[in-house]
Amino acid sequence: MASDGRRTRDPFRTSGVSPWQRALACTLTLLAALLTQPAAHAERVKDLASVQGVRPNQLVGYGLIVGLDGTGDQTTQTPFTVQSLTNMLNQLGVTLPPGTNLQLRNVAAVMITATLPPFAKPGQMLDVTVSSLGNAKSLRGGTLVLTPLRGADGQIYAIAQGNVAVGGAGAGGGGSRVQINHLSAGRVPGGATVERAAPTSLMQSEFVHLELAHTDFSLARKVADAINKEFDGGGIADAVDGRMIRLTAPIVPDERVRFLARVENVRVDAVTPTARVVINARTGSVVMNQAVSLEACAVAHGNLSVTVSSTPVVSQPAPLSGGQTVVTEKADVQIKQEGGQLSMMSGAKLEDLVKALNSLGATPQDLLAILQAMKAAGALRAELEII
Which residue, among 185, 66, 80, has the nearest Cα to 132 in the 3D structure? Predict the structure, then answer.
């Protein structure tokens, strides 16, 4: 109803249109308007960078697994297993007579690996992975004996012990064997106890440094600007180079933790990545990002196939001739070359490039050769990385 008393016309009110249909039309109109709006893409600082000094540490140890059901190391072929068991028994007060030949099938020598997370404190439990060193058939059902875990500096940071969980199964008999998954490695959930905290440099300076995951001067500048904007432009962050941002942080530990928590959640507008094409020469995988584009070029790709076939030919002598049957081979070599179609390719987007290459029927191996030729000709606007 208008202000002057006249009835206004509903644009969705037509004969035969129900109220729910009018509501659906309004919803679809609003959804279409939202989809046409450009999406603002921003990432958090914690997804782009890490705090220098806040890092995990790798631990490693050597130990024994006991209690196996006849699937352990064959001690005649793994003398280190016997030596390790002898040393362990000596430490427990059991002295073996000299020259004792141990034939054990329930013991396996293993390497133990674990990751010590940052800020881990004594008493914290860690998961460990055990991997067979010898020729044990399976670690299923075994128990890891007390083993120290050392860091790169040779210091003991954790002690591991516990029952091994193996995610596989196997059985055999009569020369046949069936196996599901891997039996020579397993995990001990919560099998290690931290005995020493790893040192950290986070609280030893008035500055905290953020390290970007990738070197990018534009991103480093944007991260520093976003952090300064979050803190009212107080000059908190300075971009040192294309990978590191220096932050002036509070000295008090509680205030520093609050400061870093706030910094981690700062939103940074995404930057256009460096145009790059990554090719895995072993698997034929080709991955390219959105920034890859092409200059106008012509591509012709043909296939040359060589087929060699060998057919056995038997020469049978006549009866009573005294000759011998001779088997020879007849080789047939065929060379076939398929003509390559000359195609024009150009485009400023990844979609155009993919469509153009697919139109040639190129396989991943063909793409490798085509992209290398394009890069050499100067038509590919991207860095070509072969892994």
Answer: 185
